[in-house]
């Protein structure tokens, strides 16, 4: 199963209908930046009944409030408000939801998937003052995550519960939960959906912390699918532990490969190059020969690539590698 993510490129007329004809498995609808039904309505006329629609609930992932691209330079000093009510940038960067962990001078906040980082140089009750570590253009509402700091992630926020009201639309077949670290969280959500909307939907559990990797055995017992969310795993675990935890996931999930989905930066190079990058091809070959065939494309189908081209290339390669005999 190949999952694509909704975004500007996917919304172009005819793209979804062609992907459906080519065997698309599911469409991921991110809810962090745009209402889910608003996105679904853009592609509703092109959907096929056998294609799953999944709403991705971000949980308590901290984000900056810029609705448009925001340029920063190395050495810039920025003031970031802790007032989570400043949802849209009006001359003042802010973080939402409300920060509920301790901040120390010297802490590093990784921005987005690692495009840049901010080092804390001052902190008080109202704001954080940071220094930019690397030039970057920040996309709208990029994540801001403390590096290698243990956080008690809230799987669902009040905003997520509001977005779940779209489950009254039977087109939606599944929920993607972020920062899942134990099975109890999944059980709770299943009960809520059943009690509130009188229906059952598939649960896709994103594993993106060391604690989540450690608890894989009980998470897989309750989730319909488990997603290796490599983007936030790198940020929460750090460069040293990331490949070790990734390998641990792949080894632990071997027996459940049909329930595993691999995500994040699988084919970025398709957007700019004729040939895919060596590192991307090597990783696809590795997971393919281990039996992993479920992949989730994110920015590849939202802004970086032609969704048809990247879908065809990835579908072919993962099948080829999975069936390759020495």
TrEMBL record:
Cited SUPFAM superfamilies: Phosphoenolpyruvate/pyruvate domain, PK beta-barrel domain-like
Pfam families: PK
Name used for this protein in its record: Pyruvate kinase
Biochemical pathway: Carbohydrate degradation; glycolysis; pyruvate from D-glyceraldehyde 3-phosphate: step 5/5
Enzyme class: transferase
Chemical reaction(s) catalysed: pyruvate + ATP = phosphoenolpyruvate + ADP + H(+)
Keywords per UniProt: ATP-binding, Glycolysis, Kinase, Magnesium, Metal-binding, Nucleotide-binding, Pyruvate, Transferase
């Amino acid at each position: 199963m190949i999952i694509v993510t909704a975004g500007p490129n996917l919304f172009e007329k005819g793209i979804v209908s062609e992907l459906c004809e080519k065997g698309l498995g599911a469409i991921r609808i991110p809810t962090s930046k745009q209402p889910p039904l608003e996105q679904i309505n853009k592609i509703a006329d092109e959907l096929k009944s056998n294609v799953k629609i999944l709403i991705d609930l971000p949980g308590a992932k901290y984000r900056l409030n810029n609705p448009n691209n925001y340029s920063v330079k190395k050495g810039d000093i920025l003031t970031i408000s802790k007032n989570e009510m400043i949802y849209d940038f009006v001359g003042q960067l802010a973080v939402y939801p409300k920060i509920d962990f301790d901040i120390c001078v010297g802490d590093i906040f990784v921005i987005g998937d690692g495009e840049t980082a901010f080092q804390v140089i001052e902190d008080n009750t109202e704001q954080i003052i940071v220094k930019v570590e690397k030039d970057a253009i920040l996309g709208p509402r990029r994540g801001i995550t403390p590096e290698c700091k243990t956080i008690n992630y809230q799987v669902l926020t009040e905003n997520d519960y509001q977005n779940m009201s779209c489950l009254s639309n039977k087109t939606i077949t599944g929920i993607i939960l972020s920062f899942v670290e134990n099975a109890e969280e999944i059980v709770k959500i299943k009960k809520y959906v059943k009690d509130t909307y009188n229906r059952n939907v598939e649960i896709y559990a994103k594993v993106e912390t060391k604690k989540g990797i450690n608890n894989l055995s009980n998470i897989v017992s309750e989730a319909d699918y488990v997603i290796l969310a490599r983007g936030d795993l790198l940020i929460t675990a750090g460069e040293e532990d990331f490949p070790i935890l990734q390998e641990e996931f792949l080894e632990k999930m071997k027996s459940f490969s049909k329930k595993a989905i691999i995500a994040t930066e699988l084919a970025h190079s398709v957007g700019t190059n004729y040939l895919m990058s060596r590192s991307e091809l090597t990783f696809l070959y590795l997971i393919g020969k281990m039996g992993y065939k479920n992949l989730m494309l994110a920015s590849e189908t939202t802004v970086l690539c032609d969704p048809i081209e990247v879908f065809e290339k990835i579908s072919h390669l993962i099948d080829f590698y999975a069936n390759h005999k020495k």
